Amino acid sequence: MSYGDIASTIDTAKGIAVGANYDGDVWDFYERKAGPDEALPIGVVLTIPAAGSESSMGSVITKEEGLLKRSCGNVSMIPKFAIMNPEFTFSLPNYQTACGASDILAHLMERYFTQVEHVDFTDRLIEATMKTVIDYAPLAIKEPENYDVRAEIMWAGTIAHNSLLNTGRLGDWGSHQIEHEISAIYDIAHGAGLSIVFPAWMKYVCHENMDRFVQFAVRVFGVSMTLTDKELVVKQGIQKLEEFYYSLGLPVYLREVDIPDDRLKEMAEKCCRKGPQGNFKKLYENDVFEILKLAR
User: Which residue from 1, 81, 144, 266 puts its CA 20 to 30 A from 276's CA?
Assistant: First the structure.
């Protein structure tokens, strides 16, 4: 990856692991031109709970040429071991702690917002993990060297993305794909991009399954079940999510991080270049453009 790729240390190691025995360009895997069927074994040391790459089969890198951020994945890319010591996260700046929490929460919400029915057990597991992140992320910022607090977040980040919570359900992942287009162009942390995209995505797609959004609002953020207007319940749930992001010092709109709106169409086109994104609602280029406008 000598042509200017940007990725986390773990995701870079995964890219090297799948590319080591491949005669072509490792970027072929990220463009879906080849399948990463085998990888060298790797072990990792986790220093920031966020992407969950320490236990996932995925890797995400950015190619500066063309400003493309893409992913690839295969079970062979799951690290053989991961050293997870919460003490290694004590020195994280507050902003990176917040961005990591946002990324973890996003992994959970991508799985939570599904159209698959009769998945209440995994719903409850995801809800518990979301509530752990919501409860402990502010504490980690207030008490950065609290081992027990850091441990809760670190474990939540691993569970959020190790495929356990995929059981029996089909997640969405549209918000992640939209965010990739933002952080491929602009200097913004992935977690901060997700705190911008997710509320906008929710506002755009919530009518596809209002009951699921009501459940999210009530079970995760404690919105009153006595409210009879579903629209109001959903609106309050999204508002509470935005308030959570703000409480961590994260942005909710593009303008708050000085990202202009002159490249929204470009991002929407790149996002859907190979087809629609998402599963909760299939997002075509115009859908992505409208979501990005809601996020301005």
Answer: 1
Select the more confidently predicted residue: 182 or 8: 182
98 vs 62: CA distance, rounded Å: 22
Amino acid (1-letter code) at residue 190:
H
Helix (H, G, I), strand (E, B) or coil at 283: strand
**Phi/psi at 267 (nearest 5 deg)?**
-65, -40
Phi, psi dihedral angles at 236 (to 5 degrees) = -70, -35
Single out the residue of 191, 171, 179 nearest to residue 51, CA to CA.
Answer: 191
- d(C-alpha 122, C-alpha 163), whole Å: 11
Pairing label, strands 81-83, 68-73 = unpaired
Instruction: Say whether 5 sits in a helix, a strand or coil.
Output: strand
Place of tokens 């409208």: 290
Q: What angle do CA 71, 280, 241 make, to 5 degrees?
A: 85
pLDDT at position 7 is 57
The H or E element containing residue 179 is: helix 174-185
Q: How far, in Å, CA of 208 to CA of 117, rounded? A: 14
Whether the Cβ atoms of residue 292 and residue 193 lie closer than 8 Å to each other: no
Helix 210-221, helix 230-247: angle, nearest 10: 50
- CA pair distance 201, 58, nearest whole angstrom: 23
**What angle separates helix 190-205 from helix 230-247, to the nearest 10 degrees?**
170
Residue linked to tokens 């060298």 = 40
Give the bridge partners for 277, in sequence order: 283
Joined together, the tokens standing for residue 292 give 């990005």
Q: What is the pLDDT of residue 227?
A: 74
Please state, rounded to an integer, the average pLDDT across all residues of the chain. Answer: 95
**204 in Cβ contact with 292 (< 8 Å):** no
